[in-house]
């Protein structure tokens, strides 16, 4: 087991997002059988676009500010904030250059 600096990875992925025409970047931090964690970076003003819920999931803002929208509901979160992702179609947009840790339950425990 190794130690991963989420702060360093966030800075790295924000730089990669700036270099990407899509204005975003992602790297899987943990890909186990029951849990997947992915660090996502978005350049200010960019969004993932509305998409289906991945199932039970949370979002931890590592840097910047983001807006999570689902239907008529909208939540803003900043560095250090933690959000439950709604089990409906939703969108994630970056207000500032941002990095988030997405944690998704991928399988039920036996």
Task: Write a short abstract of this structure.
This protein is mainly beta.
Describe what you observe in this structure.
- The protein has 110 residues and is mainly β.
- It has a single domain, classed as Jelly Rolls.
- Helices cover 13% and strands 45% of the residues.
- It has one helix and eight strands.
- It has one helix at residues 6-19, and strands at 24-31, 35-42, 57-63, 65-70, 73-78, 82-84, 91-94, 98-105.
- Strands 1-2-8-3-6 form a five-stranded antiparallel β-sheet, with helices on one face. It has a three-stranded antiparallel β-sheet with strand order 5-4-7, with no helix packed on it.
- A hairpin with a 3-residue loop joins strand 1 (24-31) and strand 2.
- It is globular and about 35 Å long.
- The mean pLDDT is 92.
């Amino acid at each position: 087991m190794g130690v991963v600096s989420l702060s360093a990875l966030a800075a790295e992925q924000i730089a990669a997002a700036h270099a990407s025409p899509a204005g975003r970047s992602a790297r899987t931090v943990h890909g186990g059988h029951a849990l997947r964690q992915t660090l996502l970076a978005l350049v200010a003003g960019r969004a993932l676009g509305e998409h289906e819920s991945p199932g039970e999931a949370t979002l931890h803002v590592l840097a910047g500010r983001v807006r999570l929208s689902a239907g008529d509901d909208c939540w803003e979160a900043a560095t250090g904030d933690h959000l439950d992702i709604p089990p409906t179609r939703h969108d994630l947009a970056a207000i500032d250059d941002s990095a988030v840790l997405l944690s998704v339950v991928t399988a039920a425990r036996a």
